[in-house]
Design goal:
Layout: H1 2-13, H2 17-33, E1 45-52, H3 58-68, H4 89-94, E2 101-107, E3 130-136, H5 144-151, E4 156-162, H6 169-180, E5 185-190, H7 199-210, E6 213-216, E7 218-222, E8 228-233, E9 238-242, E10 251-255, H8 256-262, H9 264-284, H10 286-294, H11 304-317, E11 323-328, H12 337-347, E12 358-361, E13 364-367, H13 368-372, H14 375-380, H15 383-387, H16 394-402, E14 404-416, E15 420-433, E16 437-440, E17 445-448, E18 452-456, E19 459-463, E20 465-467, E21 471-475, E22 485-489, E23 505-507, E24 517-523, H17 529-542, E25 547-550, E26 557-561, H18 564-577, E27 582-584, E28 588-589, E29 592-594, E30 602-610, E31 613-625, E32 638-642, E33 648-652, H19 676-691, E34 704-709, H20 712-715, H21 722-743, E35 747-759, H22 761-774, E36 778-783, E37 827-834, H23 841-848, E38 854-864, H24 867-877
Parallel strand pairs: 1-3, 1-4, 4-5, 5-11, 6-11, 33-34
Antiparallel strand pairs: 2-3, 7-8, 8-9, 9-10, 12-13, 12-23, 14-15, 14-22, 15-20, 15-21, 16-17, 16-22, 18-19, 24-26, 24-27, 24-28, 25-26, 29-35, 30-31, 31-34, 32-33, 35-37, 35-38, 36-37
Helix pairs in contact: 1-10, 8-9, 9-10, 19-21
The structure holds guanosine-5'-triphosphate.
Guanosine-5'-triphosphate is lined by residues 52, 54-60, 78-79, 95-97, 138-139, 190-191, 193-194, 330-333.
Amino acid sequence: MVLRCIVRKYVHRTSNNKSLRSATRGFTLASRCNAPTAGNEVAKTRNLGIIAHIDAGKTTTTERMLYYSGYTRRIGDVDEGSTVTDFLPAERARGITIQSAAISFTWPPSGNHSWLSGSKSNEALSATPHNINLIDTPGHADFTFEVLRSLRVLDGAVCILDGVAGVEAQTEKVWTQASTYQIPRIIFVNKLDRDGAAFGWTVKEIGARLKVWPAVCGIPWWSGEGRLQGIGDVVGLRALRYADGGDGKDVLPSSMQQLEIEDARFATELKKARTALVELLSEHDDIMVENYLEADEDHLAISVADVTASLRRCLVSQDPQNVVPIFAGASFRNVGVQVLLDAAVDLLPTPEERPDSEVKIGAARGGLAKFLSGKLTATTLPDRAKSSSKAVSKEKVTYALQNLEACALAFKVVADARRGVLVYVRVYSGTIHRNATLWNTNLQNMERAQRLLKMYANDALDIESIPAGQIGVIPGLKFARTGDTLVSYTGSHPKSGPPAPINALQLRPIDVPPPVFFVSVEPSSLAEEKHIKECLDLLLREDPSLHVSVDPESGQTHLAGMGEMHLEIARDRLVSDLKAKARIGSIEIGYREAVSAASEHVTEVFDREVSGRSSKAAASASVEPAGDEFVAAQDDDTHVFDLADSNRLVVSMPILDPNGSSTSEEETSLPEHLSLTAILQALQTGTSAACARGPMHGYPIHSTQINLIFSPAKHIFPNTTLAALSSAARLATQQALKDSAKLTETAMMEPVMMVTISVDEESLGAVVHDISSARGGSVISLGSEDTSTSSSTTEIDVNKIYTPPDPFAGEHFSLESFGSSDKRAAKQIVARVPLKEMVGYLRHLRSLSKGRGTFTMVVDRFERMSSQRQRVVVQSLRGDYG
Ligand SMILES: Nc1nc2c(ncn2[C@@H]2O[C@H](COP(=O)(O)OP(=O)(O)OP(=O)(O)O)[C@@H](O)[C@H]2O)c(=O)[nH]1
């Protein structure tokens, strides 16, 4: 009916309908010409992620994918701890995924082109083998950063929902993050074999909470007794019956004619679903309207290829995504996974179909393609660099870019017990060849890729190269960390690397959130110290959201992270996997200290023998509270750097050109061996080290501005080294911090979290009361799905969403009452709450909400504590409760 109206509008809009029809045919032909050929590897690649709420079934589904594609001989079981992707002992023990595992497989399997014989048209992309690089992402809120880190290398994602729990808080969060990266998604509604599974309800929730139109492509096929016997393929207009208790390979397809005889009611539902699907697609894709006209306005007569192509267009070219294909199944019962795999190949984009990847060069941000064409740097170099003798000319940039062989992002580092440290990379341009020298633009060092691997489930295959669009592994690198950009460049200088601007290229950079919890790590004996340091270095390479600092006064090492679970896992990894003999303290909140008064300038001299050579330098520093409205002086002699924890470093120095020569006659130039860039870097390192420990309580410094005055004549001596300069800057800053604290005590700051709680209506009042009175939180919004964090602005009328009935869902899930009455976890509370009050909150929430409430939280900001609150915290830290 809706489609009829659209058709009328459409025909009206088109003055010459015939010409449009022929244009459409042209399109179809063109898209067929673009279909991947045997030689077109990139077009036959899908870099996929699986995203979902914890326990929705990601690992269970992944195991089936590996099994059906022939990479494993038996299906791993999460509950038995025998899965391939949850490979860390800690993950297996807890049954949750911690680190993203990236594995490759082929779908459909080579030599066996369709898993359902005779069912696939040769036109379908999923009729020929494709290389799938699958990145399994963790579902726990503490690992959001890990999710983000893997999201940035994905081209498409499968979002798995639990068909009993529906859309959960974490799903919404990851959904929003995927929207930020413009990642096209399909949804798999899993666990439909469970009692109380509500497929229709979940589909409505998808529309209401994720703000996207559900295009139902698969519907559950329940027996009269409520057993999930198979699924209805809405696109292919057939029913797939799965052998009861089998491994999912024994699937019997039934055509519509057969289904009319077998289960007439389900046949009618399948037709209804097909009609709804065509209607929905026509609202978002003009070519589908054309297909409908060509099919004589018969929803069922439109070919499988045309419906698939329309779904693909909606997914690949729409931003924001406002249609999401929905598939149904139960991976634990081995139902529906092959259909999902076909959909991933047929619908999700190839690496080449993705928008240009974001890059950063210094302060400039833009697209990789723009950078490679030389346009990004030419327009964004700072004026000073442009005018100076060292400025990078446009010609030099063009020449430099010609020699760029490849650039890649190290998106994950894993210490594998058998293979050593593995660096997972995604190549964004060019090809990395075996033995290539790789310049790390973050660490500014060079390493050789002596071997390249492709990871297949439990096996690794040596390969000669990793081309653009592909994911591969470089074993044996000593330095590369998660998040580093690696560049292969012809004629790179072994020490200084490729020329500017390539030496500063950063692919898809992400901000690391501040750590809010920490533990102390103490070697159990002196002999262990070195080993523990190596283990911590490795942990940091794997996970840049962990931080290590050493308290210069007590010598104690602190390991900081983003959540309790995050640190628990790090602790297990350190002690159980890496066998570090260390005493780990209890998990504590990472408070901060902020200066309250401006100090005078203080000069400190560092004069010591380092490695047998005397080395001397001086630095002058003052500190003050960092106001929000800082306006950097526009003069050429001020350099401003944003440090961690909202600290700011302002270095004033005489006007020096990039060679270090003074441009003013009264000032001294820099000595030959110290470049301006290296000096500024050393000053940053020194001040950051000083900020690691506040003068009053020993917490890191926050919201503080450090002013350094640097003059070659006063601060540099004949034997000055960079290390001495850095130490002098540290000493001067530490003294300035102490001076400030003597004037007025530093203020303690605490992490305040943005918390999103989902509860049912019944428990809402109790939870809100608890948050705002007992926990000192402030409720920001309260409501139903309208308060969803989804970034999409699409208006969804849930009454217009097609859903099949939920005959076995239980009384709570009456589809007619959706949006009006009591529903599961449908009320959301968004509140700002101090982290201290959220420790152990899950147990409390469960008791307030009959076990049904869930919550997620992220750091919102650090806030100054009231003096009363500060007193309580300091007392409890001292163990003084009186
Ligand atoms: N009944 C039923 N149980 C399932 C299904 N899929 C997964 N499960 C169970 O749900 C639990 C969680 O499954 P996982 O595969 O570990 O879920 P996950 O999403 O990987 O969880 P995390 O790794 O912790 O994020 C396990 O006990 C599975 O056996 C299903 O289709 N039906």
